[in-house]
Amino acid sequence: MADNAPQRPHYTIPDLPAASRPRERLARLGPQALTDAELIAIVLRSGAEGINVLDLATQLIRFFRSLDGLARATFEELQQHRGVGPAKAAQIMAAIELGRRVMRDSPEQRPRVQSPADVAGLLMSDLAFEDQEHVKIVLIDSRNYVIATPTVYKGSLNSAHVRVGELFKEAIRRNAAAIILAHNHPSGDPTPSPEDIALTRQIIEAGNLLNVQVLDHVILGRQTWVSLKERGLEFSRR
């Protein structure tokens, strides 16, 4: 019986009204008006067999869970997605690298962190009301400008579960001078737990071995935050 069910029509970009096509929308409204998927669709230029480029771009973001996840994917990982071959993987990586170089060449356009309050201000709106713990690392260059703030872990924070090596992977790849660890407490109370302190100790020790300075560990609550460095927890041992 399922064989007789009507098939969902497959739409291509030319099937869309001209005003809804990504390139036409960009020309009319500017790039800032487009969604992430529309911008990626313009970079890719064409879809693949059975899928238009806009749907392919949307699936890519879902597959890698976020735009940041897509930006961190390797050449090989991009090609694991159906419809992405070497050419499309190269197009995505080239566009992302151009964006990184613009940010690197214009540091004044990036946030600068010089205190735990700056870190809290940077991340509070993203993390304060999450219903599970998210661990982020703030990658810092030699002048305290933010390079990126990737999420490296989600779930109940336990030093036995968090892979410390993952925290430094992006720092090394992006040549960060230092990192700041940050995570939220869904309860709203940012008081450091024994697990928070133990994880901080591990990260500082790993940073010393890898020659990547760990500047602080900031814990975010609903409206408040705590700096482990300001409280003299673990950082006083350095």
Poorly predicted segments? 5-10
Strand content: 5-15%
CATH topology of the largest domain: Cytidine Deaminase, domain 2
Main pleated sheet: 6 strands, mixed
Structural domain tally: 2
- SSE order, as H and E? HHHHHHHEEEHEHEE
Radius of gyration: 21 Å
The coarse overall form would be: elongated
The count of strands amounts to: 6
CATH homolog superfamily of the largest domain: Cytidine Deaminase, domain 2
Proper CATH architecture of the largest domain: 3-Layer(aba) Sandwich
CATH class of the largest domain: Alpha Beta
Would you give an account of this structure?
The chain contains 9 helices and 6 strands, in the order αααααααβββαβαββ. It folds into 2 domains: 2-105, Orthogonal Bundle (DNA polymerase, domain 1); 110-237, Cytidine Deaminase, domain 2. Helix 2 (36-44) packs across helix 3 (53-63) and helix 8 packs across helix 9. Strands 1, 2, 3, 4, 5 and 6 form a 6-stranded mixed β-sheet that branches. The chain is elongated and about 60 Å long. It is an alpha+beta fold. The longest helix is centred in the middle third of the chain and has 20 residues, at 86-105. Helix content is 41%, strand content 13%. The model is unreliable at 5-10 (pLDDT under 50).
